[in-house]
Amino acid sequence: MRKLITLLPLLGLLYMSCETNNPFVPEPVEDRFEEDEAAILAYLEENNLTAERHESGVHYIIEEEGEGSEFPTAFSTVLVRYKGYLLDGTVFDETEDGDAVQFNLANLINGWRIGIPLIKKGGKIQLFIPSNLGYANREQPQIPAYSPLIFEIELVNFN
Prior knowledge:
Helix content is 23%, strand content 26%. It has 3 helices and 7 strands, in the order ααβββββαββ. Strands 1, 2, 3, 4, 5, 6 and 7 form a 7-stranded antiparallel beta sheet that branches. A hairpin with a 4-residue loop joins β3 (77-86) and β4 (91-94). The chain is globular, with a radius of gyration of 20 Å. The protein starts with a helix and ends with a strand.
């Protein structure tokens, strides 16, 4: 009888996971990789920019590599100055008055986890991030769902 009592809630959860419109099952993310890639390449061309392309689909321009021999990892705590904007130039976030802010890189969007480890302390990078490595289908304040993003980032320090 105990096994049945333990099994019933599990069966209920399994049943709920099969339902449509279930709040516990995330909606599938639309694959917009090709559209985002085309939009990023068009932006780069229109602005006469030459960027490298990471295998993930992130395009980047290293403006300053930085100093030292160590690079942060995707799990580093980073101290950064940054500006984030959409391909149309709309700024949605930035550090204020030259102040740097600290983040645990593991808690940020995948585009940052991929791009920040490409520079060292004091380095500067521009990241052109496809929506699947940004916020995907999750609308954010001033950021529509499925938006490719641009970030200008200075890595002040990390540990």
